[in-house]
Every structure is written in structure tokens, then in C-alpha cells.
Amino acid sequence: MAAATSTASASAASGTPDVRKMPIAKALNEALRSSMENDPKVLVMGEDVGKLGGVFRITDGLQKDFGEQRVIDTPLAESGIVGSAIGLALRGYRPVVEIQFDGFVFPAYDQIVTQLAKMHARALGKIKLPVVIRIPYAGGIGAVEHHSESPEALFAHVAGLKCVSPSNASDAYWMMRQAVESDDPVIFFEPKRRYWDKGEVDVTAIPAPLHAARVVRQGGDCTLAAYGPMVKTCLEAASAAEEEGRSLEVVDLRSMSPIDFDTLQKSVERTGRLVVVHEAPVFLGTGSEVAARITERCFYHLEAPVLRVGGFHAPYPPARLEDEYLPGLDRVLDAVDRALAY
Amino acid sequence: MTVESTAARSMARRSGTGGKSATKKSASAPREAGGTTGTTAATAKRSKSAGAASPAKTENSGKPAKAAKSTRTSKTAQPAKTAKASKAAKAAKPAKTAKAAKSTASAKTTRTARTTRTTKAAPAVDGSAGTELVQLLTPEGERVEHPDYAIDLSDEELRGLYRDMVLTRRFDSEATSLQRQGELGLWASLLGQEAAQIGSGRALRDDDYVFPTYREHGVAWCRGVDPTKLLGMFRGVNNGGWDPTSNNFHLYTIVIGSQALHATGYAMGVTFDGADSAVIAYFGDGASSQGDVAEAFTFSAVYNAPVVFFCQNNQWAISEPAERQSRVPLYQRAAGFGFPGVRVDGNDVLACLAVTRAAVERARSGQGPMLIEAFTYRMGAHTTSDDPTRYRRDEERAEWEAKDPIARLRTYLEKDGLADDAFFASVEEESEAMGKHVREAIRTMPDPDTMAIFENVYADGHALVDEERAQFAEYLASFADPDEPAHSAASAGEGR
């Protein structure tokens, strides 16, 4: 799997570069708009995605421009949303479904796991299910229960699904475009607390492959691997570590299924240490799989066991405790200290 | 290598995928099939128990949480927005009202429901569908008229329906026998439901689209699906096995009720395309309890989708009687969702055809969904793994035997001189030939290649699948006899 090695979406633009600064939320909006302009079969559907533009405004203005048949406000029934999206896909459409919040995806979990994920295989490849399921996920916004969860491992575990999560505006734009173009179901995890983080988006660039990881900061002492909201946290941790004279490399995995282990392996072979960071509970989380695979691949390069930093085996706590629950700069650096102490 | 590990390896080689072992495998098919049976039965049970769990699902409603105000609005830029938007969402939420309405309705109709079960069907919701079970051919083979559903078929068409039902039943009984012989791991018999399936199946056009359960063998026949293709998943050589787009007949769906939503989405797409095709979703009385079916009713009603919900109420969801699924006749459920429902004699092929035709026409002309409850009976077991003697009386079966769908049409054809002995003989002959064909087909059905495990998991490929495929091929190749060409390794190479 090819991997991009710089933060900017790799070079070679066709024509003059069109670089715009925008928040992740706007980048997603632009990506949906472009996708809908490029392909009349692309539909957006979900709760409140029409006039309201979604509770996070990701679909803002789309219904006005594309009409109610392409930007569909649905009844409040997640299984119904995904189940009918499957039917639309069978009819030749490419539905992009919005699940309003992470904690509300579970009524649709049955349709996603038993139907969406398996239908292509059951039909021996005769039908395709190009459905994107967007899930604003993870915490950090002081929300009430069921609004801050990170269920990505529950989806990455399922064969037939692909799972990705962008960490910046450029990736948000391009990964959404690619997810919509994918002939496989893609669960698109949007880091809701980073929605308003701005970044440059070159809409004329040639993007990295959807499932390629990317080294977003180079360093020699230890690798930090993260995706979605934790990439920023890891970059901040790396800056803080630099002041202490430690050089941390940060890899943005970008995709949780498949995972670009080749890129990560190269990094760990250089640094000899790996700390995996995500908001989701550590137990049987993405980090568990990364730790196992990297240990297999890099056994003789590792100076320390692969360490994981993430949520606890407890329900996501009430908002006034989430700062303690969520991995922050200090907990990441604590893990780095432990890795370097071996 | 130690003695033990050599032995282990040679054991493994024996169960491998070489040409020799393939012969061995088919010889031991009965035992293997037995194993499959157990697993599939467990799956079926689980699907059902999901239904039982659905009330909890409703209660769960994470939704109210949305409305609660964020406690720490200062923390980030958007919580205020979120809270506001969520509040709006709550206000707009139709579910609550619907739920309340439903419970009131069920409380009111309970008494009526109980009496109508033993006498006759309650009035249809839209008032136009008559006041009883729609019937055009009595169990005694008498042709009767119905004020709302007329049908005028040529003699040839009538004979065609008879032929369809006989051949479907023959295929079905052949499959049951093949399961008993160990050729299939499991079979879900449609015995007794031929009229419901042939009647509804023959009401469709080629461009219509069918979403079946796992028992719609008769509908598959109407769609022109090669019957032997239906056996693949029950034999365990695939999990579907036909191209749904070639006959507009979707794959069998095992998880109860899921397909009702697929049908609804597909029908929404038909509308978006400006086409006049109709979509039909099959499900049973058990599935009527599933949230997905209720959601399909809601979605199809709200979007006025051209979908016909064809519920075969065969009275039993494995061991649970229809009374365990509903306190009102199932067709009455439609009223609460805003579209008509009608109960038809599911053992009357003419009535099933007439009512489905009307529903399909209704859908085509932009009038939205309709629910048909085909009142029928599952004469056999739920599947070959089931034992109905544990939960239902022989007398009940006998009562329904007197309403047999094929017998009544035959009586009618004979009595009215619409078919002669030569016709019945030819159908019998055709039926024998079909049985022979099915037996031959199943016995020559090849087992899938081992590497098929990794086929079509993704349309665009996946790094992990590629990696595991290569590793597994390498593992299998390690058993290869150095004196023989490595079969499994070679086929692994052609994996994709």
C-alpha cells in the first residue's frame, strides 16, 4: 500500500492549484457537494440533514441546491435509514448516510453488520454496496450521554466494511470524496470536536490512497500512532516532547480498516518504540490489533512493548469527567516515558 | 520433525483440498451436512429471538438524551448549536406519537380481534377491500366473486397456475428428501404456501423487484430463477448464489424482516428514477414483530414508495403462534401507518393473484405502499431441523389440509372441465422430470474451492484480506505432496 509522506496532499495538481483554508466541517460539506455534482446517483440522507443542514451543519445548503430527492430528511429510525440506503444502493444509487451521533448507530448495527457488510459476498460479487455511513464520533465537546463515543473497533472488526477517520481538513475533503467513490461500504468517522479546526484544502490535488497511513511528523525516539481527533493531541504531545529533548514521530493511520501496517512498520523500525493512541477504550480496541501486528512485524526492532493509550473499560463518563477520561497530552507523554524507560 | 507432528500433518493432509480428499469429502457429506444443520438451526433461532428483543430496542431510545442541554457549553464552539438542533429534532420526532397511537389502537381493538379470529376477518382499513377474507376460490373448489377483487383468467392461465404450484411443491418436497439424505444441511419447506407465493409471484412484471425471505421458492420459480440455484445455500456451498439483478429477485434473507427495508429503499429509488416498477417485500407473521418491518412501513408511507408488503401469515414462527406476535389481525397494522391492508385467503391462488395485482397497480400509479396479509398455513416444519409435534396439534394441520391450495384448484379445473386428464398427466410427468433434475443437480454440485473464503469480501479489495489469503495459501501449500502438483497453492494464486 502506498503511503504519502507529507502533510500536504501530494503534489502534481492538474491545472492551477486551488488551495482554500476551511474547517473540517466545511471541507466535508464541500466534498459532499463535489460528489453530488460529479455523480447524480449520490444521495445524502439522515435525520435533519435537509433544511437544518445536520446538527453539525455538515450538509448545510445541500438540500437547497440539490433538492429533497437527493438530500433526504429521514424518519428517526437508524435501522430504517441504513436499510433503505441498502435498497437504494441496490437500485444503483450511492447513498451517503448521516448517523446523527456515534451513540445512535446501534439500532442500525444489525443492518450494517448482517446486511450491508455481507451482501456483496453473498451475491458472489454480482452486486455492489457503495454506501457511506458518516458518524460524528468521539468526545471532547461536553455533551450528554451517547454523544461522545468511539465505536470504531465494533465496525473495523466486521469483514466487508471499511473504516476511516480524517484528522484534518484536507483529508476530510479528499477522504470523503474517495469514500463516496468506493464501491464498498465505508464507515466514515468524523472527529466532531475537530470540526472547526481549519486547514488548507487543495481541491485540485491528487490525493493519497484512502487507506494509506501518513507520517505527519518525523522523529527518531518513539512513534505515536493515532487517527481522527487524537492526531492533533499526538502532534501537540510531540511538540511538548521536543522541548524536553525528545523526538517523536507521529503517524496518522487515517484508516482503521484496512490498516496500513507497512507505513507504520517502517516508522517503528526506525524508532523502535510505538504508542498507539485513541479515544476508544483500550481493551480490544484498534490499538490492540496494531500492537499485535506491529509486534509480529517488528519484533527484533522493538526496544519496548507497544503501549496503548485510550479510554477505560467503563461507560463514557459524564461530561465533567471527560477531560480525565480522554487521552490528553500528559497521558500520551506518560506512555512515551514508559516506552523509553525499557 | 517429531512423530506426533508428522502424524498431525498427515491428518491435516487427509482433510485437505487435494483431488483425492475431495472424493472423500463428498462421501462423508451426510455427517457434514448434519453439522451444518445444527449451526443453521441455531442461526434461525437467534434471528427469531432478535424479534423478542425488539421491544427493548424501542425503549432504549437514546433520543431523549439529544434534547438535554449540554452541561459545558463553554467548552467548544458548537455545543450550543448541537443542543438547539437536538431540541428541534425532538420536537419533530414522530415516533412518540406513533407509539402512543399504536397502544391506544391495540387496546381498543383487542376484543374485536379475538372474535374475528374465529369467525371472519374484520373490515379492511380503507373500506374498499371488503369485509372479510378475500376469497375467489373456496376450499371446495367453488369459484366465488368478491366485490373489490375480480379476476378473469383464461383456461390456459388457470392451468398455468396449477402447473406452477405442482412443480413448486414437487421441488420443495424433493429438497426436503435431499436434506433427509444428507445432501442439504437444511431446508425451509414452503409446503402449504404455494398459492400465496405463486399467486403473488405471477402478479409481477419482469421489471418489478422481489425481496424474499428464505422460503420464497415459489416466487423464485415465478421469477425464472433456476430452482437448483436455491439449494446452494442450504447445501452450504455458498451464502446466496444467484445474481439478484438477472431475475430482479434478491438474495434470500435469513435475518428476519431486514429485507422489508431493502425493498423500501429500492422502491424509493424507483420513484427517484421516475419508473413505474413495483417492489414486493415478503415476510412472515413472526417478522411482523421486527422493528425493521415497522420502520419499513413508516419509511414507505412517508415517501409514498411503490412497495407491496406481502406477509404470509402461516400461523407459526417456528413454535410461536401468530397470537404471540400481535393482538390485532396483521393486515390492520397498515392503518396506523397510513396505507391500506387487506387479508386474503393465502391458500387461494386466484385471490392472491387478484389482490397482489391490485396492490402492484396501486404502487405503479403512485398511490404508495399496501400490506397484504396472506392467511395461510405452514404445513411442514419451520425447517428440517424443527419438530412441530412439540408445539402444535395434528388436528390443526388436518383442518388446514382440507384447505389445500392445489387440491382446490384441481377440483375447480376438473369440475368445470378446464383441464383434461392429459393435462394432469403431463404436469405429473413434468414434475417427475423436475425431481430427477434436482436430484442430479444436487449430487453434481461442486464444493467451493477453499480459497473462495477470500472471494468477494470487498469490491475494491482490502489489504488484510490479501494478506490473510496469501498466508493461508502458503499454509495449505505446506501440506502439498512434493511428488504431486500443488493443487491448493495453484488455485490460491488465482484467488482474485
UniProtKB/TrEMBL annotation, chain B:
The keyword Oxidoreductase applies. Residues 1-131 are annotated as: Disordered. InterPro entries: Alpha-ketoacid_DH_E1_comp, DH_E1, PdhA/BkdA, THDP-binding. It comes from the Bacteria. It holds the Pfam family E1_dh. Keywords: Oxidoreductase, Pyruvate, Thiamine pyrophosphate. CDD domains: TPP_E1_PDC_ADC_BCADC. GO terms for biological process: branched-chain amino acid catabolic process. GO terms for molecular function: magnesium ion binding; oxidoreductase activity, acting on the aldehyde or oxo group of donors, disulfide as acceptor. Its cofactor is thiamine diphosphate. Residues 163-443 form the Dehydrogenase E1 component domain. Residues 38-58, 73-124 have a biased composition (Low complexity). PANTHER family: 2-OXOISOVALERATE DEHYDROGENASE SUBUNIT ALPHA, MITOCHONDRIAL. This is Pyruvate dehydrogenase. It comes from Streptomyces nanshensis. The lineage of its organism: Bacteria, Bacillati, Actinomycetota, Actinomycetes, Kitasatosporales.
